[in-house]
Amino acid sequence: MNSPGTDLTMDYDGLVSAPEDRKLNERAAMGRFLADVERRALRMADIAVRNNEDALDIVQDAMLRFVRRYATRPEGEWPPLFFRVLRNRIIDHQRSRTVRNRVIAWFMPGQERDEPSDPGAIAPDRATPNPEEQAGIDEAMERLEQAVGALPERQRQAFLLRAMEGLDVAATAVAMNCSDGSVKQHYYRAVRSLRAALKEHWS
Fold first, then answer.
1. Are 182 and 176 in contact (CB under 8 A)?
2. Is the pLDDT confidence value at 96 over 90?
3. What confidence tier does 106 reach under pLDDT thresholds 50, 70, 90?
4. Which uninterrupted H or E stretch holds 45?
5. Most CB within 10 Å of its CB: which of 51, 79, 86, 112?
6. DSSP code at position 104
7. Beta-carbon neighbour count of residue 156 at 10 Å?
8. Long-range CB contacts (< 8 A, 24+ apart) of 34-40?
9. Domains plus CATH for the chain?
10. Confidence (pTM)
């Protein structure tokens, strides 16, 4: 976490840029507001995601979204609106990380048995990988996306609902309008196909 004196070098002028007819004092008020909430927002995001760089990205993105959507709202409404945007952005980040962790777990030792583990139970809160590991993860994710797209439709549906959305067998069966046994069969075949397609990452 940055110390209180650290300059995050956020470009408030760029964030609050507006049409020429917007009054200068309105831009200045927005700049003051963002400067005032910046530290609190960064602390909230850092506590939530436990990674300073990700937290900074989240706060910057939340500020951009807030300005674009709510700059014309009365100044007194800004605090709750901003923190709502920030909260939603944090949730989006956490959801994305959870999905990625489920998939990363596929490429971890101990997941090679024929019967796939419950995808909803293999999403550990992994530490931030180093740059080399991250590059490998990014490549694996890109290859996985391509391989999923090549699956037969029902296998693709079962995989996306189970592995990506984290639904259990019963909920997936309802979504696919089929039996639990069919879900297990489609998911099993999808996993076998994907593991074969991604075997260079399966170690």
1. yes
2. no
3. low
4. helix 24-49
5. 86
6. H
7. 17
8. 34/10, 34/63, 34/67, 37/79, 37/82, 37/83, 38/8, 38/10, 38/63, 39/4
9. 14-115 (no CATH), 129-197 (1.10.10.10)
10. 0.55
